[in-house]
Design goal:
Layout: H1 8-35, H2 42-50, H3 55-65
Length: 72
Amino acid sequence: MNEPTLTLDQIRARGIQVLGEQLGIVGMVRFLQQSEVGWGNYTEERQQWLGDPDVKVLAQAIQTHYPDKPTD
């Protein structure tokens, strides 16, 4: 076979078309929700969101939010 070389965008578009034909719209959406890999660098972004608090800072924050809980 002499298949033409497709770009990644063309492959994705064709794949979505086939999924819709074979699974229906709802099935296609459910499949895509399971298989999306996401974007960005989670580890790097998590560090930006959470910073690097020490255990004492975390314990203080927990005690502030849950003052009635006993501590050991």
